[in-house]
């Protein structure tokens, strides 16, 4: 789903997710893939998910290989995105996690993101800065959802975007300076499975 107007884009997503919420069993999961380079794109998708009655919970946001590297948008991009985020959502009523401080949420975000980026590095992959941003924004949204109402989550997430961007910059810079040695991949293990 795409739209150049941010309000229409968010409204379309919210409408789709609201129908999903109506038909989904209480214990069911909503799973979809997403990536975006701009922070407002992340705010739009967060607003759509939360407004429809879902939360990202239990650190289930995972980054996976996206479209082919020869796709035209990637060839033209200065820092192309090579990853999609699989967003795994539960109904908000089923999320009973306690609220954590913003500082604790961002610390957990950095720890989670660094571990994921290092796993990518060990497979010999080098992520672009925008890829690292995706790896950071996803756990930030998961952590900041815990114990917060929709409006509060959106406000805190938007206010934390600069911190998330700084974490991504730091991780990208550190891992370029000290690349990990690629680990051998078992012959019977798919590359995608080796990342997690």
Order of helices and strands: HEHEEHEHHHHH
Helix/strand structural class: alpha+beta
Rg to the nearest angstrom? 17 Å
State the separation between the terminal residues, measured CA to CA: 28 Å
Shape: globular
| Average of per-residue pLDDT values | 81
Largest sheet: 4 strands, antiparallel
Q: Find the count of extended strands (DSSP E, 2+ residues).
A: 4
Describe the structure.
- The chain is α+β, with helices and mostly antiparallel strands and 196 residues long.
- It has one domain.
- It contains 8 helices and 4 strands; from the N terminus they run αβαββαβααααα.
- Strands 1, 2, 3 and 4 form a 4-stranded antiparallel beta sheet that branches.
- Helix 4 runs antiparallel to helix 5.
- The longest helix has 21 residues.
- The C terminus is likely disordered.
